[in-house]
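Subject: Sanity check before I submit

Could someone independently write out the structure tokens for this chain? I want to compare against mine line by line before I put it in a report. The sequence has 466 residues.
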Amino acid sequence: MRHMSAAITLAAGIAVLSIPAKAEEAAPAPAEAEAAAPKGFWERDTLTGDWGGLRSSLDASGLKLGGVYTGEVLGNPSGGLRQRAVAKGLLEIDIDADFDKLIGWQGLTFHTSLFQIHGRSMSANFLSNNFTVRDIEAAPAGRIWAMWLQQSVYDDLASLRVGQMPEQEEFCVSSNGAYFINGTFGWPIGFAANMPSGGGAYPLAMTGARVKVQPTPELAILTAVFNGDPAPMIYSNNPDPQRRNRYGLNFDTNQPPHWFGEVQYGVNQDKGAEGLPTMVKLGGWYHNGRFLDQRYDNQGISLGSAASNTIAKTYRGSWGIYGVIDHMLWKKPGSEDGGIGVFTRLFVSPEDRSAMPYYDEVGLTWKGMIEGRDDDVAGIAIGYGKMSPALASRDRDAISLGTNTTVRDFEMVTEVLYRAQMNPWFTLVPNVQYVMHPGGGIAYPDRPTTRIPDATVVGLRAVLKL
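---
Independent answer below. Compare away.
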């Protein structure tokens, strides 16, 4: 193929030299000719290429098809319930439609994401921790992840999105935190532990509507309402919400609503900006459903007592507030987005009805740390979640009344990774995590006074852009 390309290029050059000067001016510049040449296997943007031009043709017509495969092996050489090695994989297929190109309807777009999840889960089977050590960890299944329509108006000044949407992709997003693999740096456990069925986060989504208004390039305001439970118990008695909504087909709108609001303010967000980028987000949520007291039953007796009827006291509604900061500390000279960045997220919810009312995370990333590896990212992050004092008091009540158990206090994870961009479509991610107090300090199932020990998890992830 290279010899054929060279022959074609040589023949074209001879032909250009043999025609008049006026036609010579119309010949493509060297940079244009290079850009038009097909990229080789290792240089192209996706593993499967352009499908003989079909992909580009569809994209030009308003239909974009893409996908990502994430596969990994990991194990816990120490700690947890027992030591094991597992393999896990996620195939994601994305379909996007631009109706302006398709039928001339300006501002209307469609998106859907489909998942095929396979392999064993480390956290669920061998650690019993809250902070899932992999953001792709879920029960094996094929499911719908997202399916929505969005209408934008006034050059994207405002937009309305309606359909099946992950709350995880709409609110409380940290761009620097997204580099990390532990699930809490995507959808924080400070949300998941306190919302019905874990909230609208991987691998579950919620039916809802989101409005975004961006009056200035720096300021954006988001508000949304979602169906309050992605996997309500009315459809199944299975305690696992992923089993209750196995295929992502729950488009229910009859659950108590879940409201979100967020204000975003960002400066120097363009890659070519001279100043250091900073993004600040402040938000909150309110859920209209009923929530369980963490200590008392509906008769005022501790749930840790044998005299309790085990029917927890309930409250109407719950809420949470949060803040997010992404800030670049140092920008690499001559780079568009390389340098050292920091991020933090903080969450607060009421103690009496929240299993984990306080959560915080902080992390540091360095893009282009190694000379000549400008797209690689190194990072370290720490997530900390404090269990409810009411829940801890319930455990102490049980101990004082003769029950053998542990007192839950907190869970914490530290993650170190390096994302090596091998080529445009292939990324390798070696990763190490240390999990403290799995489950907030819970005990072995068969040893009620012995906590599950802290765990070390080591893994290697491969990401293929299809």
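---
OP: Matches mine. For the report I'm noting this point. The first strand starts at residue 63 and ends at 78.
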